[in-house]
Amino acid sequence: MSSPRWMSLMRHVSVFCGLAGLAVSLASSQSSPSSNSSSYGLVASNESSSASSPLAVDDSAESLRTAVSALGSEGSGAGQWNSEKHGTFSLSHFAAEAGAGFNAPVGNDTPYITWGGNFTGGAGLHFSQRFTLLAEFQFMDNKLPGAFIAAGGGQNGDSHIISITADPVIDLMPTRVNSLYVTGGGGYYYKSTNFNVPVCCDFYGYPVNVTENSFSSSQFGANLGMGITHRLGGVYGDGKMKVFGEARYVYIHTPPITEANGLGTTELIPVTLGLRW
User: Fold this and answer.
1) Which of 220, 214, 225, 215 is closest to 265 using CA atoms?
2) What is the pTM of this model?
């Protein structure tokens, strides 16, 4: 009797163990796909992230390049604005000139002065393509008429005029190869009149002039003139060197003839050819 009962108990335990094993296997089979799917999702996510990574890098690089380009253009524009608007001058803003020519007397001083030559030099600033301001130095050497020389007690004579003036130059066609300009200004003029007598002799045996009589004066003077230029280089009107030719009317307020050192006002027309930068 005990043996059948034992066998029945063993059958129940075996059935229970089998059912427990079946339950465990079913549970593991159900959890395994979800973990696989989550792993697959992680891998897929990683693959998707890695696949989209070059595009993201390219977009970031392109955005960076665009930002740098915009910054550079803004910086250059600001620098140009500062240069143009705030007057930050570079070497291209500096101006210079040098020239030479001849002088013709006009007005009431023709009995006291004749033709001569001149040298002109100047430096200044280009404020724009159209407007330049120059500080000019000019030396004019003129001869004296024979009758005036004899009256002064000499055998020959000359008149020297030295001037330092401020002269604006306005270019009427600044972008053209050939252009017209107007100029004028005023400043300090020094004039000396000299009556000379030749004496013998210098080291080489030639007679030399000795000033027998002279007088001079310092006063204000003014000038006004017009000229032409021809550009020597550059494209689209950006060349700096020009050949110029000009004629000016010069008025010097020298003392009247009633004074010991005066001959009345001096009027001349210097014609000058030269180079301007």
Assistant:
1) 220
2) 0.65
